[in-house]
């Protein structure tokens, strides 16, 4: 019988501030793993910063920025096994990079090129979910179905604070609890849903508090602390594998960048608060932690940053070198066995937009009869 | 062959398909211990266990949403929506994910799930137990829709839906769940999707119908026997639509009346009429008429018979196309 606890009040934290707050450590993480976490953080940070530039250069379309969300994504994925599945929202568009997906694939998604749509089975990463919270039951169903098949696989779904207002979040979390699904519901609470602040989103004291309603533990963690996120997710995955069911993790951060490249937050955001967050952003925090530990040298940091930048340069070059998509793909992939009418439309689309040739007046024409005979 | 009621034929198909394929599972509200509020899933939990015939929380979007994830884990879920109008919370999942996910993976992953639901009126039920929502489903790309009108077709279409690699929605006419009785083949039996059935041969006019309206059309044809030879075409499958069967029948008769229980505007009858306008215009000797429900909320059940297309309304429409 698992314990169902009210959410912890304070945020779990490992990384200190180098002054009054002492640094902690996570059991079982050696030097190589600490560096691997850093490498992943820099990878995602570089992806994000370059993507904003590529957008401004007109090389990718509208892009949902995840700057300062990297610690949540990296820490949680690092706590999973390769066989576990990830169900991202658009805020985690590049999370596949942590599973070996090429940067060009994700860039193509944001370029609207078919090459950006991958096979989830190749990476254990489901398709990017655009409609809010609607992928929560997918992760739960996957986890539940894996358990039914006797497969040791955990599923994690990522969503924002606003997503917890959606009915489908409630339904997904309800199923997770009832089916004891080995699932992790990971909320990146960045306190904004475009322009709507958390205070207008929910009257709940915390998002983690919602967990008790589904019979699962709710954990609050500092979303800017990659080690705290790692540790909380590792515990949730252990619970899941032990058959104790799902966990709701609320990782608290602050959105220090626009919602997306199309957004202008000056109309609603508190600039001072953003500035404060930017100074304490998650990659820098971890880098300072590693330096205090003596794990990261200047030359290593430079090499890692340069490597990430090179990967992005190669990624965008590869994406741009891809031939334009064939328009026949408009008709592909919706069905395994498409209706015959769709095939007819596909055949005719090169010439006209209608559905096959209309009947022609001619020999086959019947003479309209009005006699009712 | 065994004589079965329509709902018994659905149950028979589920038993046969679950036996045949161990990845088929049934899920929904009250489908397990109770066997479904209409008893369509009776005996499945006893035979296949609570993991393969699952009583779910009362959450339609959760049922369909977890079914998407179950497909990704290798299952073939057959989801029961308890009633037609109770399925609307699941439309978000249907439109956003069920019909799109295969496309999203560029055809690499299949989502072979089935949604079954009793639909339609005439059963003297409280509000929102009477809707005919098929058009919402037919309109969603990536989704197929079938509607049986006989016990044999119910069995065969349930099996076809389960075996199809694409998502299929089955609407089961609840009015005739226990009124339609007929011979049903024993064991495995499949009625292919996309094949209409000539329920009655005729030469003067084609009455196109599906679900519970097939019986109404047949009775209208019977009543008109001394005046005209009516063909009744049971579409059975709305998507894929058997255009060949439809066009062949209308080429023979030159006249058509299309019957549906759903509200009129943009209903499936409008699609049938559009196909005839595009592809059969020179075969037609008269305007095509629709006999449908009305563009109002499904009425209070004491007066519901004024809403559901009746034999008399179909007879009247047939006489009008014959006189045109």
Describe it.
The complex is a heterodimer of chains A (373) and B (324). Chain A has helices at residues 31-56, 70-78, 103-111, 120-123, 136-148, 167-178, 198-201, 226-241, 271-279, 282-293, 298-321, 340-348; strands spanning 85-87, 155-160, 183-189, 192-193, 196-197, 218-222, 247-252. Mean pLDDT of chain A is 92; it is low at 1-5. Chain A is globular, with a radius of gyration of 24 Å. With 373 residues, chain A is of the alpha/beta class. In chain A, the strands form 2 sheets. Chain A has a 5-stranded parallel sheet with strand order 1-2-3-7-6, sandwiched between helices. A two-stranded antiparallel sheet of chain A has the order 4-5. Chain A contains 12 helices and 7 strands. In chain A, helix 5 packs parallel to helix 6 (167-178). Chain B has 324 residues and is α/β, with parallel strands linked by helices. The model of chain B has no long low-confidence stretch (mean pLDDT 98). At the A-B interface, helix 5 and helix 6 of A face helix 3, helix 4 and helix 5 of B.
């Amino acid at each position: 019988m698992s314990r169902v606890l009210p959410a912890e009040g304070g945020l779990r934290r490992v990384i200190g501030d180098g002054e009054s707050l002492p640094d902690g450590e996570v059991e079982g993480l050696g030097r190589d793993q600490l560096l691997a976490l850093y490498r992943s953080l820099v990878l995602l940070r570089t992806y994000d910063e370059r993507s904003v530039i590529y957008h401004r250069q007109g090389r990718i379309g509208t892009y949902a920025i995840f700057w300062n969300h990297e610690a949540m994504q990296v820490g949680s994925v690092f706590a999973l096994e390769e066989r576990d599945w990830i169900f991202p929202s658009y805020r985690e568009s590049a999370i596949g990079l942590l599973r070996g997906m090429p940067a060009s694939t994700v860039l193509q998604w944001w370029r609207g090129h078919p090459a950006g749509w991958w096979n989830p089975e190749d990476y254990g990463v489901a398709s990017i979910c655009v409609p809010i919270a609607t992928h929560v039951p997918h992760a739960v169903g996957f986890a539940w179905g894996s358990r039914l098949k006797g497969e040791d696989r955990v599923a994690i779904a990522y969503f924002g604070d606003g997503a917890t207002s959606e009915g489908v979040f409630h339904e997904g979390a309800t199923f997770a609890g009832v089916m004891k699904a080995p699932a992790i519901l990971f909320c990146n609470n960045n306190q904004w849903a475009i322009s709507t602040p958390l205070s207008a989103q929910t009257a709940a004291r915390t998002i983690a508090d919602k967990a008790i309603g589904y019979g699962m533990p709710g954990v609050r963690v500092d979303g800017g602390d990659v080690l705290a996120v790692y540790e909380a997710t590792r515990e949730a995955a252990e619970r899941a594998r032990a058959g104790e069911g799902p966990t709701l993790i609320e990782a608290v951060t602050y959105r220090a960048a626009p919602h997306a490249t199309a957004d202008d937050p000056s109309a609603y955001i508190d600039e001072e608060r953003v500035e404060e967050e930017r100074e304490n952003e998650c990659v820098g925090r971890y880098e300072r932690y590693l330096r205090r530990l003596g794990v990261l040298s200047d030359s290593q940091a430079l090499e890692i940053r340069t490597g990430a930048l090179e990967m992005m340069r190669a990624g965008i070059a590869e994406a741009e070198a891809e031939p334009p998509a064939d328009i026949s793909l408009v008709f592909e992939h919706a069905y395994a066995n498409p209706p015959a009418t769709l095939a007819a439309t596909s055949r005719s689309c090169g010439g006209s937009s209608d559905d096959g040739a209309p009947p022609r007046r001619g020999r086959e024409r019947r003479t309209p009869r009005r006699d009712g005979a | 062959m065994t004589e079965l009621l329509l709902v018994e034929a659905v149950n028979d198909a589920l038993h046969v398909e679950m036996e045949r394929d161990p990845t088929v599972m049934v899920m929904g509200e009250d489908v397990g211990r109770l066997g479904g509020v209409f008893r369509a899933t009776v005996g499945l939990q006893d035979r296949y266990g609570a993991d393969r015939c699952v009583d779910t929380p009362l959450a339609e979007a959760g049922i369909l949403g977890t079914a998407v994830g179950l497909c990704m884990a290798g299952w073939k879920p057959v989801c029961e929506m308890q009633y037609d109008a109770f399925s609307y919370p699941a439309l978000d999942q249907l439109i956003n994910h069920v019909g799109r996910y295969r496309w999203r993976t560029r055809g690499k992953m299949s989502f072979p799930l089935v949604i079954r639901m009793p639909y339609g009126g005439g059963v003297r039920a409280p509000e929102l137990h009477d809707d005919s929502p098929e058009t919402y489903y037919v309109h969603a790309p990536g989704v197929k829709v079938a509607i049986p009108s006989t016990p044999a077709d119910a069995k065969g279409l349930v099996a076809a839906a389960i075996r199809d690699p694409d998502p299929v929605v089955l609407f089961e006419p609840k009015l005739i769940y226990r009124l339609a009785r007929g011979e049903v083949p024993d064991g495995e039996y499949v009625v292919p999707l996309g094949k209409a059935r000539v329920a009655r041969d005729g030469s003067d006019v084609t009455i196109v119908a599906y679900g519970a309206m097939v019986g109404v059309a047949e009775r209208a044809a019977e009543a008109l026997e001394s005046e005209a030879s009516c063909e009744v075409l049971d579409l059975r499958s709305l998507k894929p639509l058997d255009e060949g069967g439809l066009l062949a029948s209308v080429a023979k008769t030159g006249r058509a009346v299309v019957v549906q229980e759903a509200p009129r505007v943009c209903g499936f009858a409008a699609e049938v009429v559009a196909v005839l306008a595009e592809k059969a215009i020179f075969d037609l000797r008269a305007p095509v008429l629709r006999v449908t429900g009305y563009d109002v909320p499904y009425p209070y059940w004491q007066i519901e018979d004024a809403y559901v297309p009746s034999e008399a309304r179909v007879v009247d429409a047939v006489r009008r196309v014959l006189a045109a």
